[in-house]
Specification:
The protein has two domains: 4-251, tm_1862 like domain (pyruvate-formate lyase- activating enzyme); 311-368, no CATH class. It is an alpha/beta fold. The strands form four sheets. It has a nine-stranded mixed sheet, sandwiched between helices. Strands 12-13-14 form a three-stranded antiparallel sheet, with no helix packed on it. The protein has helices at residues 34-51, 72-82, 103-111, 126-131, 138-150, 169-181, 199-202, 210-226, 245-251, 278-282, 295-306, 315-322, 326-329, 331-339, 354-357, 360-366; strands at residues 10-15, 17-18, 30-31, 59-64, 91-96, 116-122, 155-162, 186-191, 230-233, 236-238, 257-259, 264-267, 270-273, 289-292, 313-314, 343-346, 349-352. The site of iron/sulfur cluster (SF4) has 11 residues, from loops.
């Protein structure tokens, strides 16, 4: 039976609209139109009311798309809809693009208790931004960060993309220095992935190869660590104690609600994914795909997810949960990874090093 203690207390909400579509993007998104957004918010409220049966939510993350592409009235409708779930909130994040986070929207964020903003910076070089069809400049980013702080929202994440065309290591270093000048609490750097059906794919732009990605992450890691940021997950750095609480729910293999077009969630022993058809979603025909997670699957998720962070995998907990002594079962493999500097085996925790984080897929396969 589902009790209050095993209800998810994390909530993800997807807003799929963007003012313009970026050349590399494969997220679930569509061009913003006022009338589409009106219909979407009605369907979203219905799903929220029906699915989320816990009002004591600890972390909320509104992502997209671009949540800030909604007009002011719709933006307030969204925040008001979420308000009943945010009374016990610890971390309430919204994703924003610099050009659409106006002062009036910042004031609404403050009013409704949003306490963390994740800004899609992608590059700090205006020419590169233009070449990938982003509509902001680095000055816009600086202005938004100042406006947020002036209005009492101090927990800020800045996102960058690694491996964009024509970005050299020197430019990447410049990016990180520019990011550091804004003193964010948290920095995310994702390696470019080129998906089918994107402009990048059509233009035959290639993804960075493994060696480039490794060197790029090294450049970033060295600079950020030098300035007090800790590399706590493959693509994420934070001032210690300011890691993303919401994303740690995913990496700790905990339960969460996912609401909105194409959103994923994990409730009880079911991982689900909502319909990705906008037409279906706004007609209240949200056909979800479901995966029933048995103990064996849970074991794999636990290994795959917990090895992503510097908090590591607790092998005693793992044994209690799955009756598998990971160290005994893979002694030679683990010892080799430790000797070669990919893993740390300390106080019953298995923790990836920087090198280990770069080859997690291989480690995961070797420990299965
Ligand atoms: S703004 Fe974000 S979600 Fe929208 S198209 Fe660009 S990368 Fe994709």
């Amino acid at each position: 039976m589902r009790t209050k203690t095993n209800l998810p207390n994390a909530l993800y909400i997807h807003i799929p609209f963007c003012e313009s579509l970026c050349d590399y993007c494969d997220f679930i998104k569509l061009q913003y139109f006022h009338s589409f957004a009106e219909k979407y918010l009605v369907a979203l409220k219905k799903e929220l009311d029906e699915r989320v049966n816990n009002k004591e939510i600890r972390t909320i993350y509104i992502g997209g798309g671009t949540p800030t592409s909604l007009d002011n009235k719709q933006f307030e409708t969204l925040l008001k809809m979420v308000e009943p779930y945010s009374e016990k909130i610890e971390e309430y994040t919204i994703e924003a693009n610099p050009e659409s986070l106006s002062l009036s929207k910042i004031k609404l964020l403050k009013k409704y208790g949003v306490n963390r903003v994740s800004i899609g910076v992608e590059s700090t070089n205006d020419q590169i931004l233009k070449s990938i069809n982003r509509k902001h400049t680095f000055s816009d980013v600086k202005k938004v960060v100042n406006d947020l702080r002036d209005n009492g929202i101090n927990n800020i994440n800045l996102d960058l993309i690694i491996g964009l065309p024509n970005v050299s290591f020197n430019m990447l270093e410049e990016d990180i220095k520019n990011i550091l000048s804004l003193k964010p609490n948290h920095v995310s750097c994702y390696s470019l992935t080129v998906h089918e059906h994107t402009v990048f794919y059509i233009n035959k732009i290639s993804e960075p190869d493994e060696e480039f990605a490794y060197q790029a992450y090294k450049v970033i890691d060295d600079l950020l660590e030098k300035h007090g940021y800790s590399h706590y997950e493959v693509s994420n750095w934070a001032i210690p104690g300011q890691e993303s609480k919401h994303n740690l729910v995913y990496w700790n293999n905990q339960r969460y609600y996912g609401i909105g077009l194409g959103a994923s969630g994990y409730i009880d022993n079911i991982r689900y994914k909502n319909s990705t058809s906008f037409k279906e979603y706004i007609s209240f025909k949200n056909e979800t795909e479901e995966e029933i997670v048995n103990l064996e699957d849970e074991k794999d998720y636990e290994l795959m997810l917990k090895l992503r962070t510097k908090f590591g995998l607790n092998m005693v907990e793992y044994k209690n949960k799955f009756d598998v002594d990971l160290y005994k079962a893979h002694k030679q493999v683990i010892d080799d990874y430790v000797t070669q500097g990919y893993l740390i085996n300390k106080n019953n925790y298995l923790i990836p090093t920087f090198k280990g984080m770069m080859i997690l897929d291989k480690i995961y396969l070797d420990l299965q």
